[in-house]
Each structure stands twice: as structure tokens, then as C-alpha cells.
Amino acid sequence: MYVQLRETADELAGVLWREHTVYRERGGGVVIRGEHVRRWISLAPTGGKDRALLRAGRILDGGTTAPARTEVVVDLTAGTAELATVCRRLLADVAAGAEPARPAGSGPSRTGRSGKREKPGRAARAARPGRRPRRERHTSPGSWFVLLCVAGVLGAWLYGLFGSYPS
What we know:
The protein is an alpha+beta fold and 167 residues long. The chain has three helices and five strands. Strands 1-2-3-4-5 form a five-stranded antiparallel β-sheet. A hairpin with a 5-residue loop joins β1 and β2. α1 packs across α2. The longest helix is centred in the last third of the chain and has 22 residues.
């Protein structure tokens, strides 16, 4: 099945994108990455004969792949043109879902930062009862004690090694 998936993926990649990378997935499937369009397509075996699970998703900043946005089971006996049509439809769905619609008239939230998107903030964690809030990180007394013990052992070893000279 892997050989059939690999051959189909190579043909499909050539039809869809000029620049692409085809590689094997951990689960036995094949992935086609289009770095220049920031999208990926995966062909995975479904257990049925001549059928494959076709998934599509985005490539995030830094090169990691986002989870699949859309997926469909396809028949591998169909021609490359039909499979390419299905892939283009999935990629269009991924592209449509990648750009969230903004309400009309909503500009950037801060002046002077029109090129940057605002990230949704995480809610602040509530303080745990019975604990004081954490201050800046300083070396605790326990850490100083450990450091002094290590220095003492090192000093004793060096004294034993070099401390007594033969007369």
C-alpha cells in the first residue's frame, strides 16, 4: 500500500506544486509539503483496498504543521486529475479557514502597529491559597548551603592533594 501511496503522492505533487517535498509519515502515510504556499497534504491508508484518507492543513511559522483542517476518503484508482481536483478543494477550504474574517471597519487595536496581529491573551492564573506570591528569582538559603558544602568538599580534596608537602 505504501508504494501505491508514494507513487500517487509523487504524481499529485507534480501536478499541484512546482516546489514540494514528499516524505513518509510515521503512521505509514505520505505527506506532500508545499513550503511556498504554506500548506500540506497527507495520504494515509484506510484499511480498504485502493482507498486513502486525504487530509490537508497549514504549515505554521517555524515549519511545524498544524493539525488537519479538512479530510476526505478518496479512491486511488481515480486519475491524478480527479485527485488533484479533490486536493485543490481541500486546500481552498484550508485557505478559507486560515484567514478569520474581521468585522468591517475594525482597524488595528493599537496605533502604529498596523502590520502586527494581536495574539489572544491567556487568562491570568488565580493565586493559590496559603502561598505568598513569588518574588524575583534569587538563590535560596538551601541552594547557598549546597554550594558551600560542595566548595568545602572541593577544598578538603585539594588540601589533601596539595596541602602537605614532604620535608
